[in-house]
Amino acid sequence: MRIGLFPRFASTLALVAGVALSPAVATAEGTGTYYDRAFVLAADRKCRLFAAPVAGALSAATLQAHGAALRAGTAETALRETAARARARAASVSCANPELGVVRDRVAHAFDGWARTPRMTFPGSRAAWAADRMGSDEPGWRLMQASVTGASPVTFGLAADPEGVQALSAVVSFVGQPRPYAARIVMRDPALSPRPWLTAAGIGVLPPESQRRTVWSAGTDMAAPTLLTEGRRQGEAWRFPDAGAERLAALDPREPFLIQFLFRDGSIATARFEAGDFAAARAFVALGTI
Question: Where are the beta strands (DSSP E) in the chain?
C-alpha cells in the first residue's frame, strides 16, 4: 500500500534536509509543510520511528510549521483539519510499510544534525525568541526575548540555574525607580476570547481587559549578572509558575502579551512581548543541553 503523500513529501524531505527549519520555507510551503511534519510526527508516535533527540526536533519543527502557517494567514480551524488528516493517514499506514522506512531514514538524517544545534533564533512577526542549549556552570538564558519599559530593559523567557533547572523568568533593570512589589504576565484568556484579536493587517492585539488573564509571579530575587542585559550592573529576576509557560505556548504566534511590574504608588510599568514561536522554541530547548 502506498502512503499517498509521497510526491509532495519527497520534495519536502529534500527541502528539510537542505535548509532544516527555515521559517521562510515553512511560510512558503504553508499547510503542505505542516501536513508533512504532522504526518511524520503521528507516524513516529505510532511506530516509534526515531530516537528521542530526532523525535524532539521533529516536534519543534511541526510546531514551527504551525506558527508559520498562522502568520501566513491560514485559519486555525484549517490547521486543525490538516492535523486530523495527517493523523488519520498515519493511523492507516502499516509500520512495516517500506516507504515509511524511507521516510524514517531521510527524516532521521535531516534532523539528527539539527538536534545537535546549540543555538537557534525563532523569528516572529515583530520579535524573536533566542534559544541556547549550551551547558554552563553559571545561570543563563535557555530561551529569551528582549523588550523595554520606558528606558529600562526587560528580558523574558526560560532561565536556567547552574544545575540546569529552568524557570519562567523576567529580568528587569529599572532606571531611576524603586523596586516593584509584584510582577505579572497578561495575555488573552482563551476561555473568554476563543480566537485571537487581529487587525485588518493581521497584527495581533490584546483583547479588552475583561477577556484577559493574568499569571502572577511566584517570587523574586536579585538577578545573576549573567542574566542581565549587556551594560547593566544589577536587576531583579521575577519567577513565574510553570503554568505560565503552558499558557503562552497555547497563544497564537501573532499575539502580544505583557509583563507588568506593579509599584506601591499605584503605577505600573509595562513591557510588550510577542508570543511568536514560543512553543517551538521551548520544544527545541527541551532537547537538552549540549
Answer: 119-123, 128-132, 140-149, 152-160, 166-172, 182-188, 197-198, 204-205, 212-216, 219-222, 236-240, 256-262, 268-274
